[in-house]
Design a protein that fits this description.
Layout: H1 2-21, H2 25-30, E1 48-53, E2 58-59, E3 78-96, E4 102-118, E5 124-131, E6 138-139, H3 154-168
Parallel strand pairs: 1-3, 3-6
Antiparallel strand pairs: 1-2, 3-4, 4-5
């Protein structure tokens, strides 16, 4: 019973965070990053982050995978914006595992371009591309299309954001 109550409480908190942050998401998605020169360094001095899915211009679910000390729960806490753009690339065509005949289905792999921006200055704090795993080379007859691609690991993105921001925090 305690587990169900904790899940309900967490869901309530998540919905409250979304309600508070969503009115500002378009502003965060529209912020253009300013590349910093090779002789300067980003000025991020700590604070919380909001994660924006740039494809859909909405709060990215990865936001809720971040620890509480880094995750903004309201707009006035946002010191950094993690803009995440997803792409799906065709990396091959599948063959039937039993016959070796081309199935006509495409093997895909998702990637995420992640840019963390200082909300006050627009400076890029850090950026990277995170690429999903290689899809299988063959498929069994009857496998569904939705199972064909290899997505990016959301927890890998969350860990990269966490590491990047903590590396910049003043000690």
């Amino acid at each position: 019973m305690i587990g169900a109550a904790a899940i309900a409480w967490n869901y309530r908190d998540t919905q409250l965070e979304k309600k508070r942050l969503e009115p500002s998401i378009q502003k965060y998605a529209s912020l253009k990053a300013k590349p910093i020169s090779s002789t300067s360094r980003a000025t991020y001095s700590g604070g919380k982050v909001v994660c924006v899915n740039m494809n859909d211009r909405c709060l990215d679910p990865i936001h809720f995978d971040l620890p509480g000390d880094l995750r903004a729960t309201r707009p006035e806490e946002v010191a950094a914006i993690a803009q995440i753009t997803y792409t799906v690339d065709v990396v091959g065509k599948y063959k039937n595992s039993a016959t070796g005949i081309d199935t006509g289905r495409y093997a895909t792999r998702e990637s995420a371009q992640c840019v963390i921006i200082d909300a006050a200055t627009g400076d890029i704090i850090e950026s990277t591309a995170i690429i999903g795993g290689q899809p299988a080379k063959t498929i069994a007859s009857g496998e569904r299309d939705k199972d064909m691609g290899r997505p990016v690991n959301a927890l890998e993105i969350a860990a990269w954001i966490k590491y990047s921001l903590r590396a910049f925090r003043p000690h």
